[in-house]
Specification:
Length: 479
């Protein structure tokens, strides 16, 4: 029997956590008026089926599975934790008004599990709470609709938001301080038809992640990157989609360059990390404090290094170029799929190629790749089509193991635990600067002669070393 990759939440909620564990059943679908349930093979469910039909009004149809498979399903969809103020997947909000109950423990749990966001989502009859772990949302708790408003008000009070305003979006911040944990959370509320959806962004990382040597650069890439950022002036660009870790790379860069003799200024939206010795400015477009306006003022503040959160428009691009031309070291991000794509994007914004060739010292692209859970990953053979994608058509396949995700309790049954950045780092030398000036797009031969590792190469290396799965790297192989 093949179960759905993800059982719909409305089916899961037919049983409470206590009922699922007591009955040893996991519902997974509805068919012809019956609820299909996975149950342990060779177990007699006759009396259980009658009890469920009397109490709940629906009949169950049992699909037998092995005890290991049933245990996996129960643990995945009906978490039971005895030492916490929550039971199964239903949150106990009895202490929420005190500010010391479920919400604060949920934030602590998100921190422990390296979650980047907490989502509170209201629906007609229930509300769910999900954590974004390793880039994917994982459902953790479900609460009654009647308790949801109290939870939202608790969040608003902590973030100094207007609890009476439910019609307009609001933004705020929470300082979380419990024991030795101290970090900021960015709060965003959005009115929906069933209530306010709230997202908390955890603006924290463990300190070791802010070291360039821990981010995922290869030895050659780190040397090229370090050499470029040691220059006294010029512009270095980090590219990639939203959520690819660009901000973490920039902060790690500033941390390395932060010295008593230097003056570092940043303009960000939002300020995600606070760095001692760095003058950080929060973007406020509603009052005219834009990237361009801040950069104009920065040039009168005698900076050595400027970090610009993102180049979004022609005005910001022009100011960034001007800043680097006047003897400053400028770092920024831009949304492109490849490192060299930043060159064409800036040209599209109106930056003249001769100016860009004289200022650009480095462009780098990055992605975040999920790592296989070391506790449950499974060795597997590649199919014929997969071998062609990885090694090329007709190529010999080396004798090395390949792994696929499985799923266990430690990885929330996703098969992955943790992420690692992969990079494409292009230091701009004289010949590449000439290619920028001439607006050349086909520079693959130039990069190959320099031994530049592409994103595709970095992703394949991670797969072939057994650290990730083919499914994680396929999107990069297709680019």
């Amino acid at each position: 029997m093949t179960f759905p990759e993800r059982i719909p939440t409305e089916i899961v909620q037919l049983f409470s956590s206590a009922e699922a564990w007591n009955y040893q059943l996991v519902p997974y679908a509805r068919r012809d008026g019956a609820v299909l349930c996975a149950g342990e093979r060779e177990r007699d469910y006759a009396s259980v089926s009658q009890e469920i039909e009397v109490l709940s009004g629906f009949r169950v149809q049992i699909e037998p599975v092995g005890p290991d498979e049933l245990s996996r399903l129960l643990n995945r969809y009906y978490r039971r934790e005895e030492a916490r103020p929550v039971s199964g997947r239903t949150a106990d909000l009895s202490r929420i008004g005190s500010g010391q109950g479920f919400l604060t423990e949920l934030i602590g749990e998100a921190f422990d599990e390296y979650a980047s966001d907490i989502h509170f989502e209201p629906y007609e009859e229930r509300c769910r709470i999900r954590l974004r772990i390793d880039g994917k949302l994982v459902e953790k708790y479900v609460i009654d609709s009647g308790n949801y408003a109290s939870l939202v008000n608790q969040i608003k009070i902590m973030a100094n938001l207007d609890i009476s305003e439910r019609r307009l979006p609001q933004d705020g911040r929470i300082l979380y301080h419990r024991g030795e944990r101290k970090f900021d959370l960015r709060v965003s509320s959005l009115p929906t038809i069933y209530g306010e959806k709230v997202v908390l962004r955890l603006l924290t990382r463990h300190a070791e992640l802010l070291e360039l040597s821990n981010l995922g650069f290869s030895e050659r890439q780190l040397a090229d990157y370090a050499e470029a950022i040691s220059r006294p002036h010029g512009m270095a660009l980090i590219t990639g989609p939203t959520g690819s870790g660009k901000s973490t790379t920039l902060y790690a860069t500033l941390r390395r360059l932060n010295r008593e003799s230097g003056n570092i200024l940043t303009i960000e939206d939002p300020v995600e990390y606070t760095l001692e010795g760095v003058n950080q400015v929060q973007l406020k477009e509603e009052i005219g404090l834009t990237f361009g306006a801040a950069l104009r003022t920065f040039l009168r503040q005698d900076p050595d290094i400027i970090m610009l959160g993102e180049i979004r428009d022609a005005d910001t691009a022009a100011m960034a170029i001007r800043s680097s031309l006047t003897g400053h070291l400028v770092f920024s991000t831009i949304h492109t799929n490849s490192a060299w794509g930043s060159v064409s994007r800036l040209r599209d914004m109106g930056v003249h190629p001769y100016l860009l060739s004289g200022t650009l010292i480095l462009c780098a692209a990055q992605r975040l790749i999920r790592l296989l859970c070391p506790d449950c990953k499974k060795e597997s053979e590649l199919t014929e089509s997969e071998r062609e994608q990885v090694y090329g058509k007709g190529a010999s396949v080396p004798d090395r193991p390949h792994y696929r995700p499985v799923g266990c309790e430690r990885c929330h049954y996703t098969g992955y635990r943790g992420r690692r950045a992969i990079y494409e780092v292009i230091p701009i030398d004289g010949e590449l600067a000439e290619a920028v000036r001439e607006s050349r797009s086909d520079i693959a031969p130039l990069l190959k002669r320099r031994g530049i590792t592409t994103l595709k190469d970095s992703a394949l290396d991670l797969f072939l070393s057994g650290q990730t799965s083919l499914e994680e790297v396929l999107p990069l192989l297709a680019e």
